[in-house]
Amino acid sequence: MNVLIIISILGIVAMVSEIFGLRKSIWYIVVATLTGAFIINLNDWDTARRYYDDMVFIDNYAIAFMGLLLFLAFVWFFLSKDQYESDQFNTSDHYAQIIFSLTGALVLVSYANLSMLFLGVEIMSIPLYILAGSRKKDLASNEAALKYFMMGAFATGFLLFGITLIYGVVGSFNLSQIQHHVSEVGNLPLMFYAGVVMIMIGLGFKVSAFPFHFWAPDVYEGAPVMISAFMATIVKAAAFGGFYRLFSVCYTDISGHWAGTLSIVIGTTILIGNTLAVYQVNMKRMLAYSGIAQAGYLLLTLLVLTNASANALIFYIASYAIATLCTFGGLYWVIKFRGNDALDSFKGLGKSNPILALAMTISMLSLAGIPPAVGFFAKFYLFTVLLEKGFMPLVLLSVLGSLISVYYYFKIIIKMYGTASDDTSTLYISIFNKAVLIIILVAILAIGIMPNFFLGIITQ
Amino acid sequence: MTELTWLIPLLPLIGFLILGIGNKYLTKSVASTIACATILGSFLIVLSILFPLINGTLANTTISYFDWINTGSVHLSFSFLLDPLSITMMTIITGVGFLIHVYSAGYMSHDEGMTRYFAFLNLFVFSMLLLVMGSNYIVLFAGWEGVGFCSYMLIGFWYKNQNYNDAAKKAFIMNRIGDLGFLLGMLLIFQTFGSLDYATVFTTTSSIESNSSVIIAITLLLFVGAMGKSAQIPLYTWLPDAMAGPTPVSALIHAATMVTAGIYMVVRSNVLFSLAPFTLEFIQIIGLATALFAATIGLVQNDIKKVLAYSTVSQLGYMFFALGLGAYSTALFHVLTHAFFKALLFLCAGSVIHAMSGEQDIRNMGGLAKKLPITFYTFLIATLAISGIPPFAGFFSKDEILAHAFEHSPLLWGLGLAGALMTTFYMFRLLFLTFFGSFRGTEHQKNHLHESPLSMTIPLMVLAVLSTIGGFIGIPEVMGGGNWLKKFISPVLGGTAEVHTLSHETEWLLMGLSVGAVLLVIAIAYIIYVSKKTVPLTEGVETSVAQKTLYHKYYIDEIYDTIVVKPSYLLSNMLHQLVESKLIDGFVNGMGTAVNKTSAAIRFVQDGSISYYLFAMVVGIIMLLFFNTVI
Predict the structure, then answer these.
(1) How many angstroms separate the CA of residue B628 from the nearest CA in chain A?
(2) What percent of chain B has pLDDT over 70?
(3) Which of the residues A188, A262, A275 would you substitute to probe the B interface, choosing the one with the greatest number of B C-beta atoms within 10 Å?
(4) B75 forms bridges with which residues in the sheet?
């Protein structure tokens, strides 16, 4: 709980830092506060408590997700440092928006009431509508912002409608009361099931599942690169945290009613995401489709809803998010030096900046699920959980999807090492930024080599 | 006492890493110092554990370091087992290994790739230590594969010579055949006992009936692994070819340590093998056949290293013969003494080759005793040891094997003795042709002859001492000794040291007979090669059919080539052209093309127009609601 308050205050501090002349030191304040919040968050481990008349419930699930979100935000601030130092944007405004969005994300993984779910989604999304359009003079950026906003508003409508329908049946927004109603009262009217599906649609949009994925490629492409990174990782992780929490708490007993449709959504999401990623020539669009495909794998955990699947979800999303952040971090440098984000600008990177190329390679291997990168173990663990419950066809489909994904992930690696570039100048990255990339890489590999250590922590 | 155990394998590994990474930057003297120092460090730590184990202040211990594999029902820890068996092997590996490292520093001093050589030699010691120290079959297997790899790298060390590369490949492939058997055996053990941990496997054997099919299958498969690694019929042909590597490598890997891994593994698994008398009988036959077969080939070879190689195959056969008789500790005793005298023989051969500027053909040697006195005397000691002349090391171990054989049947004893006599003959033939008579090489070689430097001769002398006194740790009861080694090892063998029940009179008689016969053979060899100065004929001169067959090693290589290698090539060619290129490539490429085309076709769905997106979403939503609520 304290974490939520600290991060909210940090947002306000960031917003007013310009006035108090703290602009130079705001980055340090943010990073230090995030570190502190991370430690305070871990301190609450194993002490589940409800706050504010059962609006927020900080249990181990929430703490694990909040820890992950804070860690990702921490990494994000390191990766985006250069972008804000080069003064393209108003730093303190951007930081304030990002931290407010992070606050929403934290709410979204710790809510115990549907109204908090809605608030979390909105607090998280609204700053992003603004940030996506923060290149004010860039048409693509404006377009991205508008598209994201319009489609987001559309999806929010469904989410709200779904919440209303549920309220109509149960008479409460409280998750435990809904759960009680589902398991004890039974005999639910059609209205209730319609509500469940509507909420599924609203949240499906946030995680970019088929057929609500259309916004992702256009928005990722138009938004500034580090904003896309934020959307692809932290926002997605929080959306999954919220999605899974709602369904595991409330709807486990009626999974027969929605699991079938969800399976179809998952299957198509995996196929569409992977197939479309193959033909992309723009790195951001490719990452968007890869994110869609990965969302398909992540949604698989909703079909099982056990402790093991919660662990699989956290482990997978952590592995996906860290590799994707690293990829976007690398992409930022490529855009900075080569001027565009086409796949072809990765040509010859193996020669002109070996460390950057290595970072991209390891991230790609992790996303594709090749050992010893952590992505392999995340997939392995996820599929094991599913196979134990007998979801053979979906696992086979996922493996098929992963096979296709190897094609487009390896395309980048081949471009970096296999082809020469016309631009042979060495790309210079400062030691600080190199160190950031290398530390992320070590993390990807270390967790991949000792997955049991990490899994042991989260399964406690 | 055991706190430093982890350092024993780690030190050589560190050495390998330093030498491997610093390959281009290290000078030769630095490289050899690092390599020798790491092995010496390991050796000292081994000694610090050996003595407490001997005087009983340290019990057998298993030291677990971390959980290595933990999935499903497989729980394997990375752990080491310290017991009399492993410590004996560790002492041989690090002790003899250190001497050979020192020797290499002199022997390889003229070679460009010296750092690379030492890097792999260190890696080999690391793998070999892993092999004997592991407390479960997985760690053993990791080491098992590691030594195979190092052997491959070192046989092909002079990679610019294609023949050497071929020899390396041959060794690797032959070993792979054995490894497959070993792996299958391991899997079968896991299936049967639910674990690969020695402690668990060996204590849950009570439910297994003696000679039941599953235990026979397990032990036979394990033995197939041993056949490959320890060069037994039919997988022995790689070992003579492996002499392509530098001579110290032959001494360390292909005589003293790696090739005895198979024997170690069988001794380690003695609980399983004792449950399968059928397998033991099979091992007995294979071992004896290998011992005799290889010895006959050794009789007529003219390459100094080839003679020693066939001698190694033959001696390994002897060890398996002992295993097959159920005399596990006797086999281990022979491993120990053999490590001393065979390493010494190879190192002496290396010294001779060094002096002869690379010449290996004994027909071009002769009369070297005066020029290379140290080499000559140490070689003589080793030859006496391998021939089984008391009181040299080989006598005691060989005598014990023969005693066990006699207990089973006098026929086995007779065959065993025949092998020993052939060994004596070809060893003395080698000795006489190399060191006696007059020099038969070129003038240039003659002027160049010189004794090797101290770094090479000191290891020779140390090994010579060990070859002389090494047998005393197993003096049989009949001679007033207590057979100390047998007692030391007995806890590993279930506490019951196998003892033959021959009366003392019989034992004395057998010893007398064998020593007498050996001396007679030496006399014959002396008459032929020293008194009559017979020299083997040069290539191309017609000889008798029998001799020709022996010289060409029974044409086994040619037979393998015809019945295995050529058909395999044919089959692989066919598979490549038909199945691979047409079927599989066609399928794979077809799939790729299909995905590509689909992607190209459906990407136009994403046309950038927001009204179209919203329309598609609405269609999707209607369908979802329809599926969920109506149906």
Answers:
(1) 7
(2) 96
(3) A275
(4) B70
> Encoding tokens for residue A252?
């486990």
Instruction: Name the CA radius of gyration of chain B, rounded.
Output: 29
The average pLDDT across B83-94 equals 89
Which chain B residues contact residue A276 at CB under 8 A? 599, 602-603, 606
User: A-B interface: how many C-beta pairs under 8 angstroms?
Assistant: 73
Q: How far apart are CA B399 and CA B390, in angstroms?
A: 10
What does DSSP say about strands B74-82 and B61-71: parallel, antiparallel, or unpaired?
A: antiparallel
Note whether A211 contacts B617, CB cutoff 8 Å.
yes
Cβ of A257 and B628 within 8 Å? yes
Query: In whole angstroms, what is the distance from residue B22 CA to residue B33 CA?
Result: 14
Average of per-residue pLDDT across B145-157: 88
Chain A positions touching B592 (Cβ under 8 A) are 407
Counting Cβ atoms within 10 Å, is residue B430 exposed (0-12), middle (13-18) or buried (19+)? buried
Q: Are the Cβ atoms of B617 and A272 closer than 8 angstroms?
A: no
Cβ distance B93 to B125 under 8 Å?
Answer: yes
- With tokens 């038969």, the residue in question is B440
How would you write A200-224 as a 3-class SS string?
HHHHHHHCCCCCCCCHHHHHHHHCC
pLDDT of residue A123: 95
Task: Show contacts of A187-192: CB within 8 Å, 24+ apart.
Answer: A188/A254, A190/B629, A191/A165, A192/A165, A192/A166
- Chain B residues with CB inside 8 Å of A212's CB? 617, 620
Closest CA to A134 of A168, A97, A184, A81: A97
List alpha helices for A80-232, DSSP H.
Answer: 81-85, 91-108, 114-132, 139-170, 175-180, 190-206, 215-222, 225-230
Considering only alpha carbons, which residue of chain B is nearest residue A147? Answer: B610
Burial class for A90, CB neighbours closer than 10 Å (0-12, 13-18, 19+): middle
Res. A231: pLDDT tops 90 = yes
Q: A279, B596: Cβ pair inside 8 Å?
A: yes
Residue with tokens 């490590």: B339
DSSP label at residue A23: T
What digits encode the pLDDT tens for the residues B234-292?
Answer: 888 888 888 888 888 888 888 888 888 999 999 988 888 888 888 989 999 999 999 99
User: Above 70 in pLDDT, residue A457?
Assistant: no
The CA-based angle B374-B380-B383, given to 5 degrees, is: 140
Q: Taking CB atoms and an 8 Å limit, are B628 and A264 in contact across chains?
A: no
Measured CA to CA in angstroms, residue A28 lies from A78, A85, A106 at distances of 10, 13, 21
* Stretch among A436-450, B363-377, B470-484, B534-548 having the lowest mean pLDDT: B534-548
Give the best residue of B629, B630, B631 to mutate against chain A (max A CB count within 10 A).
B629
Record the pTM. 0.67
Task: Report ipTM for this prediction.
Answer: 0.81
> By the CB < 8 Å criterion, does B509 face chain A?
no
Supply the pLDDT for residue B496.
Answer: 56
Q: Using a CB-CB distance cutoff of 8 angstroms, which residues of chain B are in contact with residue A277? A: 599
The pLDDT confidence band at residue A289, using thresholds 50, 70 and 90, is: very high
Show residues of chain A in contact with B595, CB under 8 Å: 275, 278, 404, 407
3-state SS string over B448-514? HCCCCCHHHHHHHHHHHHHHHHHHHHHCCHHHCCCCHHHHHHHHHHCCCCCCCCCCHHHHHHHHHHH
At A145, the pLDDT band (50, 70, 90 cuts) reads very high
Residue closest to A423 by CA, chosen among A341, A345, A327: A345
In degrees, rounded to 5, the angle at the alpha carbon of residue B416 between the alpha carbons of residues B412 and B420 is: 170
CA distances, A250 to each of A156, A184, B515, B568, B574 (Å): 20, 12, 89, 63, 61
CB A64 within 8 A of CB A35: no
Q: Which amino acid is at A291?
A: G
* Contact indicator for A313, A330 with CB cutoff of 8 Å: no
